[in-house]
Amino acid sequence: MLRNFLTVGGWTMLSRVLGLVRDQLLAAFMGAGALQDAYQVACRLPNMFRRLFGEGAFNAAFVPLFSSVLVTEGADEARHFARRTLGGMLAWLVFLCVLGECFMPAVLRAIAPGFLQSGERYALAVTLSRITFPYLVMICAAALLAGVLNGLHRFGMASAAYLAFNIVGIAAILGAACFSANVAIVAAWGVTLSGVVQLGLLMWACEKANFGLVPLWPRLTPRIRVLLRRMVPGLVGSGVGQINLTIDTIIGTLLPAGSVSLMYFADRINQLPLGVLGSAAGTTLLPVLTRHLAAGDHEGAHTAQNRSIEYVLLLTLPAVAGILVLADPIMVVLFGHGSFTEHDALLSAQSLRAYAIGLPAFVLVKVLSPAFFARGDTRTPVIIGIAILVANLLLNLAFMKPLAHVGPPLASSLAAGLNVASLAVILRVRAVLYVPRLLLVRMGLVCLAALGMACGVGAAMWEMPFPAHILPRLFWLGLMVSGGSVLYVVLLCLTGIMDFRQFVSILGRLKRGGRNKGA
């Protein structure tokens, strides 16, 4: 399980790094203003549907069902089920895409009401949204193929294919800059083209795994009905995070121009640890839990759940501490260039700190949700999800005036805390979640190590002021991050959480795995 966790996490990390380069280019060429706001809203819509219909509720319902059919009835029956599902999904998505293209002006009035105050920004957002909306068809179909590959325990290609989004996006932005084209328009076309590339790569990977999937004509078979019963309620339950972000966007459009952009770039930094750890944990844990439960091994399911909790907190807590201390220099170094001024970067850093507060909760939701999905329960997350959506909306309305661009991120973080607390309490009452005292003690020591790291980095910042020029700033930030990482590992070893020889052994396995992968 650790190897699969690291495989998915490694590919996701590479994707996030490329995504960071893409975001730096977007910031440099479009800044933090009306143009950037319009582009980000245009990307929010297909990404929301991708998370809901692709990676969220669908994945949570499809992967356990597919894995169960594969184990109990064999590969041929599992392939037939996947093909029938793919045909139904494509029919539904194409219909949804046509509706979206026809009624995009009305859709934008709903999700970006603040844009109506500026006719130019609203018109541009409608144009860009119509360009990016077909992306949802390709990426949701790609999510199904990735789910099949995950069910076959081929996690590498399922994660690697998503690199195409950022590679194609970077090429589109640079191409637009070189030929003096409208960067927003070309970048929007790059989004849709990346969906075509990702879908093609995953189709090729399925063929290579001798599991080619040609869609079948949609039919409401008994198994498809089971899938829908599990999936439809989960649209709210597993999509709470994305819906909350969409609420943040709606509120952001009502704030001064540029607020959507400030929150977007802050969220992108927050998504580095969240995407890597949350995606890796959720992707690898769900099929593992499903296998243990199908075999009646409830003790194994408890162990896998607790191991995932320990892994993600071990890596998430220092990320939170580091972001809280280094938010200003991180945003200035990474984004304070070109049209995105240093003042914009400092404002965005305020949003980043608010997002970082909720980072452990965001990740733990990804770890706890599979405990429901693996048992076929999507109803409970729906009930919790509705309550969390209401709480997030109320918090947004309360914070938007006094806190401006900090309000929506803080509301999302507090809502995520309520979400994970609710999931944990219900799992504990059902005797599904059992956290031993030893794990609680270890996590307390991890908190102390993360706090010690933050204090150490803060002291180093006091002794070494932030330089004035870009190259010294890069070196300074790299020194702070690497020094903090080393200090954290040392503190883990001193507290007994990690043995130094064990740490060296893990690094050796990762290095050998990288060489084998390259061969």
Automatic annotation (TrEMBL):
Gene Ontology MF term list: lipid-linked peptidoglycan transporter activity
Task: State where the protein is found.
Answer: Cell inner membrane; Cell membrane
The protein's UniProt keywords, in alphabetical order, are: Cell inner membrane, Cell membrane, Cell shape, Cell wall biogenesis/degradation, Membrane, Peptidoglycan synthesis, Transmembrane, Transmembrane helix, Transport
| Membrane topology recorded in Swiss-Prot or TrEMBL | Multi-pass membrane protein
Pathway(s) per entry: Cell wall biogenesis; peptidoglycan biosynthesis
An example GO biological process term is: cell wall organization
Q: Where are the transmembrane segments?
A: 89-112, 132-152, 159-177, 183-206, 227-251, 271-290, 311-335, 355-374, 381-400, 406-427, 439-462, 474-497
The entry assigns this protein to a family as follows: Belongs to the MurJ/MviN family.
Q: What does this protein do?
A: Involved in peptidoglycan biosynthesis. Transports lipid-linked peptidoglycan precursors from the inner to the outer leaflet of the cytoplasmic membrane.
Name under which the protein is recorded = Probable lipid II flippase MurJ
Source organism of the structure: Acetobacter peroxydans
